[in-house]
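Check my protein:
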Amino acid sequence: MLDTYNLLARHLREGLPQLAWIDLDKGQLTDPRPHHSLVSPALLINMGTVSWEELGQNTQIGSATITLKLAFVLASETHADDPNLTDSVAQLELAERLHRRAITSLVLTQRTATLTQVVGSYYVIEQAYLAQLTAGQLPGYLTVPVTLATHLTKPNTSL
């Protein structure tokens, strides 16, 4: 799961440089006392429960639901005439960009749910995804060294 988290966090960081904080979801929103403060916008990745299936030869494939929690410091109440409305729209736009980036990862396959809620002093947009994980070497995938013959400029034509 460490490799999965690192791969996903790196992929999201590269595509969304405006994220100020990416971390595993360790309950920072529901009980912030034992944790450091979050810098907004923050992305918390909940790895959830993984159901593993043994493929043999020390190889497993797993299915999981991974939740991405996009957290913003809660602004004052917004309405159509409020200048904070543009902040709310920007937050929803960032959530949509996060979704578009997430589905291009090698891990997440399909969004299954979205939830918006207030948690403590944060406005949170949660998006849940199905994920396929692997552990070990998948059968049929081998590392093959390749050496290119640089002297061949047109290998499919006769000399």
Observations:
- The longest helix spans residues 85-102.
- Helices lie at 2-15, 85-102.
- The beta strands are 21-24, 42-46, 50-56, 59-73, 108-119, 122-135.
